[in-house]
Write a structure and sequence with these properties.
disordered N terminus; alpha/beta; disordered C terminus; single chain
Length: 205
């Protein structure tokens, strides 16, 4: 969301996306509500990604926060162009909250990087990051994540932050795959239940 975090080149050097099964694309979004709304829509329509991970900087943060949900209201602070959404609402007919399909609590527990604290959060702050996240969750049916990171510092150089993001995103992809597998199991169970004469769970064998 903001400049000076970790560049696409830095992430590439760390090997994120080197797995042949993962195609990584890194895009930079402006701190601009209207531009973000257009770009997020295009990302989901044109690229159809498995997962979108948004990374934003929180100047006051002392840890990396994994945001569980996006909120639809409360966007009263102006962006870099002096604009904010009408009535402070992201989508007038949208639900108040949309939660990610990725369990951020589970990811925060598993993402261990020496020298970096990774924490769970349910309040992304009602600014362009949260606005972007809500839109992405809406268009992606929950297949999105938001990571708030502290500013770079001597104790958190770009290389360490990049390594932490690599670990976090890999854990998120594993969590996404787990969720997809569970949904497939539920679909199979539902199919078995709908067929007379077949025991529940028969198609799982």
């Amino acid at each position: 969301m903001q400049r000076g975090i970790v560049s696409p080149k830095e992430l590439s050097k760390l090997g994120l996306g080197s797995d042949m099964e993962v195609e990584l694309q890194i895009l930079q979004l402006p701190v601009d509500y209207r531009e973000v709304k257009q770009r997020v829509t295009r990302i989901w329509e044109d690229l159809q990604p498995q997962l979108v991970v948004h990374v934003g900087m929180d100047p006051a943060a002392k840890a990396i926060f994994l945001e569980q949900c996006g909120k639809n209201w409360g966007y009263g602070d102006a962006d870099i162009r002096g604009f904010h959404p009408e009535c402070g609402v992201c989508l007038p007919d949208g639900p108040e909250v949309i939660a990610s399909g990725v369990s951020m609590r589970a990811v925060s527990r598993r993402a261990v990087v020496e020298g970096v604290e990774v924490a769970f959060s349910r309040d992304a702050g009602r600014y362009v990051c949260d606005y972007t996240y809500y839109l992405s969750l809406h268009h992606g049916n929950g297949c999105a994540a938001l990571v708030h990171v502290p500013p770079l510092s001597p104790s958190l150089p770009a290389s360490l932050l990049g390594k932490a993001l690599q670990v976090i995103i890999q854990e998120m992809l594993e969590e996404t795959e787990k969720t997809r597998s569970q949904r497939l199991v539920h679909r199979k169970l539902s199919l078995c239940d709908s067929r007379q004469g077949e025991p529940t769970g028969g198609l799982l064998l």
